[in-house]
Write a structure and sequence with these properties.
This protein has 333 residues and is α/β, with parallel strands linked by helices. It is built from 13 helices and 12 strands.
Amino acid sequence: LSEDGQRRIERLFQRQDHRRALPGEVGDIQFPARALEEYAVALEATVDPTAIAQARFKLVIDYSFGAVASVMPNALAKLGADVLAVNPYASTSGRLGFDPAAAAERVAGLVRASGAHLGAVIDPDGDRLTVIDDAGRVLDPTQALLAFIDLVSDHLVGDAIAVPVNTTLHAEQIALLHGVRLQLTKLSTPALMDAARQPGVGFAADGSGGFILPGFLPAFDAAAGLLKLLDVLARTGVTLSSVVDALPRAHVVHETVVTPWEYKGMVMRSLVEMAGRDVLLVDGVRVPYPDGWVLAVPDPEEPVTHVWAEAANDAEARRLAQEYARRIRQLVR
């Protein structure tokens, strides 16, 4: 559902300005039979089971007390993977007290102790994936995104990868090395999902642990992302740690600036006028610089403006972000 569609529904709901359904118009709830089995079969169809089985992967997976624990064991068993499962059952109390950072460090320790090829933490909703390489290093979201782009670009069903407009320039450079086009989208999840449905887009990611395989499902799916990672590692015959070691380091800094609602439009227009150069208006205002860029985006729910900056090093990126934050504060005084 588009952002405009969401806002229309929210306005109608909040105003209580919606027509009540008559009793005869109320539908029935139906539960499809063998849904988990069909999901597992469709998931396996997106990868090369033979290649994964021959690789004999040893994995450590934390299911975070989520429902994915009821799906993944069947899929992984058919792929010949040796799995050490952590929190492999659904639990409401476990989900409420789940700490993703602590879970990632715990899985990293288990990967080092067991000599596993890969570690993963799947969030309770099954949407987001945290990856741990064979050296026991927890990959930050940017590292995971770049590693995925580097690995899947040669095995892409399509010629484009969709990512948000605040993604590091290294993503485009890596994609171009493989002859793949990078398509920038708005920061919102609906915008990324909509881009994933377009012809030619074979992979999408939001840079925060969310991965989309359009050929399987045009939505975030951590289980599909994990199996795709196993698939490309098996096909290439490389280790994840060697891929991560070869990745360039991204220097992206994020700042937030308090911006009253009535000033947001004026701030965006003023930044466009002050830029004095070619700007990218996919979402907010992105101003290019020789070694990076600055992006200013008004928050859709809070009275703040987000500022991201990328440069050749952390100090320069921080300087750019703080400079634009200062400009915005001057505009709203």
